Amino acid sequence: EPEVTQTPSHQVTQMGQEVILRCVPISNHLYFYWYRQILGQKVEFLVSFYNNEISEKSEIFDDQFSVERPDGSNFTLKIRSTKLEDSAMYFCASSEDAATRQYFGPGTRLTVT
Amino acid sequence: AQSVAQPEDQVNVAEGNPLTVKCTYSVSGNPYLFWYVQYPNRGLQFLLKYITGDNLVKGSYGFEAEFNKSQTSFHLKKPSALVSDSALYFCAVRDVRSNYQLIWGAGTKLIIKP
C-alpha cells in the first residue's frame, strides 16, 4: 500500500523557536492536510491544501502556522514561534481527491520545552 | 455544526465475542464517514469508509460498519474480537457538500481481554 512519510519522528524544541515539520505525500495525490493530536485528546484538523494554496483552515491554524509545498514532493508545516501548547503529535495526510480516503503519515511528535 | 460523537471512552470485550464501537454524527448534508484505528505510538490507519451505496461496509482486519441514516449512526463492528484488535478507534465525518477536513470523534479505547 502507498505510504505518506513524515520527518522527523520526534522533534524537541524550545519555546519561541521555529520548527518545520516535513511530509512526503503519496506521489499522485492532489490534496494535502495537517492534523494534530494533543496527548490524550482527539485529532484536530489544522489545514488542507490544494492547487498550491490553502483550501481550508481551522481556528487553530493562526498566523503562527504556515504550510508550503516547496517542490513536487514535500509538504511542510512551519510553526514560527512555538508555544508550550503546541506540543502534540502532528499528522500529515494526502488524498487523490476531496472525496476519497485520506492516507495518514506516522506522525511527528513535537515537544516544546 | 458538524460533529461526531463516540459515546464510550472505553469498550471491554472478551476475545472471541462480537464487538461494537459506537459513532453518531451530525452534518448538514450527506456524510462521508470513516473509521480509523491508532495503535500505541503509531499513526492513524484507515479501516473503512462509507460514501454511498450499501449501508453495510466491510473494511480491513475483518471490521465492518453499518450506516444508519435515520439514527445518524455509523457503528463499527466485528463478529469475533482478537486481542490484537486492542487499540484506539476514531470515527470521522466529512460533509460532502463542503469542506475538505475530517471532523473527528474523541476516540474509543477498545480492550480485548484473552
Which helices and strands, and how do they pair?
The complex is a heterodimer of chains A (113) and B (114).
Chain A: E1 5-7, E2 10-13, E3 19-24, E4 31-37, E5 43-50, E6 53-57, E7 65-68, E8 75-79, E9 88-95, E10 103-104, E11 108-112
Parallel strand pairs in A: 2-11
Antiparallel strand pairs in A: 1-3, 3-8, 4-5, 4-9, 5-6, 7-8, 9-10, 9-11
Chain B: E1 3-5, E2 10-14, E3 19-21, E4 24-26, E5 31-38, E6 44-50, E7 56-58, E8 64-68, E9 73-78, E10 87-95, E11 103-104, E12 108-113
Parallel strand pairs in B: 2-12
Antiparallel strand pairs in B: 1-4, 3-9, 5-6, 5-10, 7-8, 8-9, 10-11, 10-12
Beta-strand portion of chain B reads: over 45%
- The residue fraction in helices of chain A comes out at under 10%
Q: Determine the strand fraction of chain A and express it as a percent band.
A: over 45%
Going by helix content, strand content and strand pairing, the class of chain A is mainly beta
| Major sheet of chain B | 6 strands, mixed
* Morphology call of chain B: globular
Largest interface: A-B, 24 and 22 residues
Number of helices of chain A: 0
Helix content of chain B: under 10%
Low-pLDDT runs of 5+ residues of chain A are: none
List how many beta strands of chain B DSSP finds: 12
How many helices of chain B?
0
Arithmetic mean of pLDDT of chain A: 93
Q: In total, how many beta strands of chain A?
A: 11
Name the average pLDDT of chain B. Answer: 91
Computed CA radius of gyration of chain A, to the nearest angstrom: 13 Å
Question: Could you list the spans of chain B in which at least 5 consecutive residues all have pLDDT below 50?
Answer: none
What overall geometry of chain A do the principal axes of the alpha carbons give? globular
For the sheet with most strands of chain A, the description reads: 7 strands, mixed
Please tell me about this protein's structure.
The complex is a heterodimer of chains A (113) and B (114). Chain A has strands at 5-7, 10-13, 19-24, 31-37, 43-50, 53-57, 65-68, 75-79, 88-95, 103-104, 108-112. Chain A is mainly β and 113 residues long. In chain A, strand 9 and strand 10 (103-104) form a beta hairpin. Chain A starts with a strand and ends with a strand. The model of chain A has no long low-confidence stretch (mean pLDDT 93). Helices cover 0% and strands 53% of the residues of chain B. Chain B has strands at residues 3-5, 10-14, 19-21, 24-26, 31-38, 44-50, 56-58, 64-68, 73-78, 87-95, 103-104, 108-113. In chain B, strands 2, 5, 6, 10, 11 and 12 form a 6-stranded mixed β-sheet that branches. Chain B is globular. Chain B starts with a strand and ends with a strand. The model of chain B has no long low-confidence stretch (mean pLDDT 91). The chains are: A mainly beta (113), B mainly beta (114). Chain A binds chain B through residues 31, 33, 35, 41-45, 48, 50, 55-56, 58, 91, 93, 98-99, 101-107, and chain B through 32, 34, 36, 42-46, 49, 51, 90, 92, 96, 99-107.
